Every structure is written in structure tokens, then in C-alpha cells.
Amino acid sequence: MKMKNWILAIVSVMLVSSLTFAAEPQKATVNLKISGMKCMGCEKKVKSVLKDTKGVLSTESVDAASGTAVIVIDKNLTSEKEVSTTLAEKTGYKVSTNNSGGKNNSSKAKHSCCSGKASTSCEKK
Ligand SMILES: [Cu+2]
Fold first, then answer.
1. Which of 1, 40, 61, 77 is 20 to 30 A from 116, alpha carbon to alpha carbon?
2. What pLDDT score does 1 carry?
3. Range of the domain at 61
4. Intra-chain end-to-end CA distance of the chain, in Å
């Protein structure tokens, strides 16, 4: 009887620790290149999309001037490629990761929050 309890205790400890391990986020910092952002409105748009994107744990920075964003993702839930694809689809900006060959395509994105107008236009909205 005592032995049985011991085994039960060991089994439950193993079960709990394996569950904890599986739930542990595999954090990775990802540098994104986003072309097409022109102002703070664009940054906000990118931030709000990232916030709703599965697997994105936090957004460290989004900078329209340099066309970059730094985010932290959980690799158990998503990948750099998945996040950049989702972001590109939802915002219309061109998104690439620093690991995707470093190709910095500076051609104009399909649309931005400013729709190509003066850079201050969407900050006022
Ligand atoms: Cu804008």
C-alpha cells in the first residue's frame, strides 16, 4: 500500500513537470523589416495587428522611419515566417525577416495607412 502511494506520487510529479515543460514558451526575438510605413499611424496599425497575432508575446518596438520592428514570439505557437506573412496580409506592408536572406526590397507597398499621402496626414486622424 505504501509502495503504491510512492509510485502514484512519482507518476504525478512526472506528469505535472512534463505539462509545465510543454507549456513553457520558447521565446525568440525577431527583427522584422517592414517597408511602407510612413508615420505613427502606420506604427500603431502594425502594433495592433501584432497584438492580435497568434504566438506574438510582445512588441518591443515598431519604427516607421527605419522600417523595422522587434517582436518576441513563442516558437511553440508560431514561426518568424508565419508572423511576417500574417502581418503582411493584414497590413498590406512588405514584411521580411532579417533571416530571409537580408533582401531589403524598398519598392512601394500596396497601401499604407496614409495611402501614399503626406506623412502627417494619418497622425491627425
Ligand atoms: Cu501612416
1. 61
2. 64
3. 27-97
4. 72
